Structure formats: C-alpha cells, structure tokens
C-alpha cells in the first residue's frame, strides 16, 4: 500500500530512498522546530507513560482549560484533535459548506479533506507576491462557501494579520459564507499572537491551531479548533472521542504552560532566518520570498535549477527539501526549506550554490 500524501515530512520514504537510517537524514521538507521537543514536553510524556493503560479523556478537559487560559478563549469554544489535519477534516464535516474555496498554492490537506467529504473545490490562484487576492475572493465567494486562509501561508511564509483579514471577514459576513483560518505556524511569527484571528471567532469564522511544529510532536499529533460553541458541540457529538491520546494531552498541557520555549525559538529563528535569506540571496539566479515563518520558499528559475534533479544529489547526503512542483502553481525550480540548525543550513545553501554554478 503506497502513501497518497504529497506533502513533506515523509521520513519512512526518505529512509528507503536514501538507504540511510533516520539519524542520518535531515528533513528540510517538514517545518519542525529543530530545538523541539522541549524538556517540559518530553518530561510530561515520560512521567505519564505509566498511564497508557487508561483511556484518554474524550473531551480533553484539562488540555482545553489550559488552552483557554493561555489564549483567552472560552474552553467551550475549543476542541482538541489528532493534529490540525483532523481539525480541518472535522470543520468540513460539520460545517458542510457548498464549496471549499482555496487560495493556491495551499496545503494539500485542505483539498484532501474536501474530497473525502465530497465537497466541491473552487481554486483561486494567488499572484507571485502572495498578497490576498481580495477582488477575486469577492467575485468568487457565494453563500454557503468556506474560504480557507492560511496565515502564515504555507508555502510562502507570508503572514496576514487580523487587520489585513478584516476586509475578508466583512465579505464573508455580507455573503453568508464561512472562513477557516489556519494558524498552524503562527507560534513562529514575531508578535503573531497579537494579530491572531482568535478574538474574531464566531458562527462563520473558525480557527485551526497546531502544536506539532513548534513543540516537535508531529508523530504524537495535537491540534485545536476554535469556533462558536454550537459548532464545537456538534463536533464533539459526531467525532471519535478517543482521537487525542493520553500522552498527546499531557504533552499539550506541558507545552502550553511552557511560555519561554516558544519565545526563545522565535528569537533564534529571527536571526537564523535572516542569515539564511542573506546567504541565499548571494547566490546568482536565486529568489527568496520574505517569510514570517520557520521556512523559506526559494525560486531557482533564473539559475536554471531543477529541484527534482538536485534532490537526487541531496539524497546522497541524506537531505530532503520540499519540491514545490506538486502544488501545481510553481515551475520545477521552486522548493521550500525549513529553517534548521545553522551548520546544516550552511551545508544546504552551499549545495545549492554549487548546483547552480555547475
Ligand atoms: C498549513 C498547515 N496546516 C496544518 C498542517 C497540519 O498540521 P498537524 O501536524 O497539526 O496536523 C500543516 C502541516 O504541515 C500545514 O502545513
């Protein structure tokens, strides 16, 4: 049975392709904080491992309480899930929009979730600066549609603040549509929380959050949905009650109480991202998109880069970048790289420079 996923982070495939063990692979294709998981999270997992013969709390009460205290939202308006991907699926299942409107390029799980739920998809292609295509959105949106906005946007890293999104929210309300705001990477944005759409949540605006990237628990899985209480109640009624496992709940409680880890990560990231951008911009024929997130979108078209061919060379050293060809909106010269440890980033950027000079 082959995997159908088109996103990054396919570690098991990478082990097979590179014929290397996990420790000899550097995954630039998933955007996981290289300093994660923090000790607070691993300690919570180890201290609670003896509890795994108990069933988890089906409504994650302690976890939702901590989330609500940290972000100032009512705990009745929050549900936890097995990663943001499950949150996305549950919102589509319950809101049952007439169409899902996607701003392309976009995270592939939006389209997968729409297809699984038999909901038609309408795509709007973004311009190359990844600004919000307000006029196209206005022309496209109809009553009952669900518009997906991802901020910071994967794969460009562009951040749309709450004030920037307000025009869209007005459109949503005027035409009786819905907005699903995916803030999976917002923890990496400097001052991001102040610009989150959480305070605007109501019957037509829902927010998706993830802990998997900042806290390095992609394999454990944990995400949150924030919505009007009626929507949350409906989700709780129809979902699998045990999809958030006991260790994920404990890890989430520890992560959400560990304020300094995310702050320190943002401090490190600001420097490292600037450094990577500077080094990449020095390479002739490379364009790097400004990013507020923990990844960079890089276009090597002018230098004649062919990402799939370059990846064959990277595979030999166990490095995997995210070839953006599968998004359907890019040339074969575009890739996305996570920001990882400095010495690894330097190797990747050197590899790119030598690929383009050969
Ligand atoms: C934009 C976006 N949203 C959601 C997710 C899913 O996150 P999770 O691991 O919490 O399911 C991803 C994963 O890469 C993503 O890129």
From TrEMBL:
Domain Aminotransferase class I/classII large, chain residue ranges per copy: 24-348
First-level EC class: transferase
Enzyme Commission code(s) on record: 2.6.1.-
Keyword set includes Lyase: yes
CDD domains assigned to the protein according to its UniProt record, in alphabetical order: AAT_like
Keywords: Aminotransferase, Lyase, Pyridoxal phosphate, Transferase
InterPro entries xref list: Aminotransferase_I/II_large, NHTrfase_class1_PyrdxlP-BS, PyrdxlP-dep_Trfase, PyrdxlP-dep_Trfase_major, PyrdxlP-dep_Trfase_small
Pfam family, one: Aminotran_1_2
Gene Ontology molecular function, alphabetical: lyase activity; pyridoxal phosphate binding; transaminase activity
Named cofactor requirement(s): pyridoxal 5'-phosphate
Stated family: Belongs to the class-I pyridoxal-phosphate-dependent aminotransferase family.
Annotated protein name in UniProt: Aminotransferase
């Amino acid at each position: 049975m082959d995997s159908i996923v088109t996103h990054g982070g396919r570690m098991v495939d990478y082990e097979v392709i590179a014929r290397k063990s996990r420790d000899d692979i550097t995954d630039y294709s998933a955007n996981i904080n290289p300093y994660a998981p923090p000790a607070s999270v691993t300690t919570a997992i180890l201290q609670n491992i003896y509890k795994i013969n108990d069933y988890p709390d089906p409504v994650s009460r302690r976890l939702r309480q901590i989330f609500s205290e940290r972000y100032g939202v009512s705990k009745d308006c929050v549900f936890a899930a097995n990663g943001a991907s499950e949150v996305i699926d549950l919102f589509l299942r319950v809101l049952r929009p007439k169409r899902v409107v996607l701003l392309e390029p976009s995270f592939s799980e939006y389209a997968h979730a729409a297809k699984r739920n038999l909901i038609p998809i309408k795509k709007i292609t973004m311009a190359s600066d990844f600004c919000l295509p307000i006029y196209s959105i206005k022309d496209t949106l109809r009553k009952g549609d669900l518009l997906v906005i991802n901020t910071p946007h994967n794969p460009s890293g562009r951040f749309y603040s709450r004030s920037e999104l307000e025009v869209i929210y007005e459109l949503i309300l005027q035409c009786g549509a819905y907005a699903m705001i995916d803030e999976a990477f917002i923890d990496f944005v400097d001052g991001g929380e102040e610009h989150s759409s959480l305070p605007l949540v109501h019957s037509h605006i829902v927010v998706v959050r993830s802990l998997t990237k900042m806290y390095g628990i992609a394999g454990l899985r944990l995400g949150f949905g924030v919505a009007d209480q009626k929507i949350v109640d409906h989700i709780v009624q129809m979902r699998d009650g045990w999809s958030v496992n006991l260790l994920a709940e404990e890890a989430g409680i520890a992560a959400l109480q560990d304020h300094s880890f995310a702050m320190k990560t943002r401090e490190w990231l600001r420097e490292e991202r600037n450094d990577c951008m500077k080094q990449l911009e020095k390479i002739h024929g490379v364009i790097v998109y400004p990013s507020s997130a923990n990844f960079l979108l890089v276009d090597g078209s002018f230098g004649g880069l062919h990402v799939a061919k370059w990846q064959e060379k990277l595979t030999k050293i166990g490095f995997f970048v995210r070839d953006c060809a599968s998004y359907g909106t890019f040339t074969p010269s575009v890739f996305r790289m996570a920001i990882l440890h400095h010495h690894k980033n330097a190797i990747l950027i050197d590899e790119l420079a030598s690929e383009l000079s050969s």
